[in-house]
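wait is this the right file?? whatever heres the structure
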């Protein structure tokens, strides 16, 4: 069987060359894409770290994990669900976790779900503990805990940054696996571009400020229901943003500062790209590129000023859409001859290749499908589809495998026929991605971004097809986890073709016979 290298990036929206972004420099991820099937319409099930990660690592939706915040462990609070790494471990793989894979803390039992999910205790970079410290030098020479935080790495505690340490550890583990000839599932979780935007300062050179524009729609849309808006509290708490004293909840950030955030987000993505490049280059070095499946994705997106919003915490595409690509030797690429280099390291300061994806699927897909998809690609038995209520079922998934989309090139999409046996939930109609987001109230308040379970009063259920995004904000009871679809507080409907940025909510101009 194939090894698996599973790369998950924190808060990465698809601002990548291989997704058509003209500004960002991401040569190593683009090179991976050029050997992969790339999904251009992939969505997370909730736009916040812990719920999204628990969802795709268990293959269950947030209503089944019952995790909408950061404060419960699914095995105790919902059901003893098997995870994707656990399933690989039970099938003879050595499973390894480096960096941020599960969200740390109570939501993964303060152990990243070890020993259930992992063969050895997960690795966390020691420099992680300084992430939110005052390590950003201001114009006055003093140190601050800023949002925008280019740094001199040699001045950092330990002379390093967390993602550099994670890459080093992942490379060390690849060498151990090679030496021991062990079949592995290695998950590597990168922190950047999660805030603070702390990255080596030389990456700023790639993005002169005069090349950085504002978001195409940097204003709060006129017909946006207040319940849908996220007031970006985590950003307001950084020293540099706090100093701007913007009004709550809608007060726009000054244009020049918006450009600086966007510049630093891009710079952090290019820094991330170098780490991914070093990791994939090491896969070549140990001679495992021809026997390892590589998956690259993010846990959710991140608003960069669109709709007057920043951060995640919403149901918009900018918050829910993620990059997703699969490199499968012999399937997405012709088989690689032993010793041939697939992933030579590309320096973003000199390489601008403009590589295009090997294959691109425009099918709408969900991260909850990762578990069944990776099982199928690795030749393991695909876990059964969950019954309607599955709290008592340890092994099942709520996301069907998307391997059936791998060979459907763009031209063939129209006439494509699915061959399905009955045990397979199979859709001939266009697929749908579901996301959801909880709110404590109908108008933005201090805890609107991250309400605790007991404070949730409204749940925004959202569906995305290739044609539209449709969201209803309905009454939610956190005591018995029920949503009342008869009690709709607000709705949103955006037509993808005429309104790709989701600025013109036409919910109230349409009849709702859905």
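ok assuming it is, sequence goes like this
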């Amino acid at each position: 069987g194939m090894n698996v290298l599973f790369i998950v990036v924190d808060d990465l929206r698809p601002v990548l060359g291989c997704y058509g972004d003209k500004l960002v420099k991401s040569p190593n991820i683009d090179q991976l894409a050029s050997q992969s099937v790339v999904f251009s319409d992939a969505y997370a099930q909730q736009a916040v770290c812990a719920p999204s990660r628990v969802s795709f690592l268990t293959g269950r939706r947030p209503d089944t994990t019952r995790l909408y915040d950061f404060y419960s462990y699914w095995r105790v609070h919902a059901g003893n669900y098997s995870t994707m790494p656990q399933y690989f471990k039970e099938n003879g793989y050595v499973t390894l976790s480096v960096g941020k894979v599960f969200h740390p803390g109570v939501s993964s039992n303060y152990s990243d779900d070890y020993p259930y999910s992992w063969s050895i205790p997960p690795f966390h970079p020691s420099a992680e503990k300084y992430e939110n410290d005052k390590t950003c030098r201001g114009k006055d020479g003093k140190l601050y805990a800023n949002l925008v935080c280019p740094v001199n790495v040699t001045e950092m505690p330990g002379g390093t940054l967390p993602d550099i340490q994670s890459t080093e550890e992942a490379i060390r583990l690849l060498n151990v696996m090679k030496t021991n000839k062990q079949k592995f599932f290695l998950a590597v979780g990168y922190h950047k571009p999660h805030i603070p935007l702390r990255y080596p300062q030389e990456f700023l050179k790639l993005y002169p400020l005069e090349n950085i524009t504002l978001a195409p729609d940097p204003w709060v849309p006129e017909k946006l229901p207040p319940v849908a808006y996220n007031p970006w509290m985590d950003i307001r708490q950084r020293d540099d943003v706090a100093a701007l004293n913007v009004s709550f909840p809608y007060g726009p950030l000054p244009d020049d500062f918006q450009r600086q955030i966007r510049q630093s987000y891009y710079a952090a993505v290019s820094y991330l790209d170098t780490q991914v490049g070093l990791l994939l280059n090491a896969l070549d070095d140990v001679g495992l590129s021809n026997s390892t499946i590589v998956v690259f994705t993010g846990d959710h997106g991140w608003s960069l000023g669109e709709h007057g919003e920043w951060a995640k915490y919403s149901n918009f595409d900018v918050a829910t859409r993620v990059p997703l690509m699969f490199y499968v030797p012999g399937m997405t690429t012709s088989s690689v001859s032993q010793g041939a280099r697939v992933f030579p390291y590309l320096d973003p300061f000199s390489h601008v290749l403009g590589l295009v994806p090997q294959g691109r699927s425009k099918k709408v897909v969900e991260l909850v499908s990762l578990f069944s998809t990776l099982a199928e690609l690795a030749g393991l038995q695909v876990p059964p589809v969950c019954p309607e209520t599955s709290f008592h079922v340890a092994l099942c998934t709520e996301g069907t495998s998307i391997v059936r989309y791998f060979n459907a090139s763009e031209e063939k999409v129209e006439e494509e026929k699915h061959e399905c046996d009955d045990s397979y939930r199979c859709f001939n109609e266009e697929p749908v991605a579901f996301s959801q987001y909880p709110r404590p109230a109908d108008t933005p308040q201090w805890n609107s971004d991250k309400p605790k379970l007991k404070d949730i009063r409204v749940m925004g259920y959202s569906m995305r097809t290739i044609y539209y995004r449709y969201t209803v904000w309905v009454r939610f009871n956190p005591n018995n986890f029920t949503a009342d679809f008869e009690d709709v507080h607000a709705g949103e409907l955006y037509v993808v073709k005429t309104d790709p940025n989701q600025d013109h909510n036409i919910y109230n101009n349409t009849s709702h016979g859905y």
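The CA atoms of residues 303 and 310 lie 5 Å apart. so i think its the right one actually
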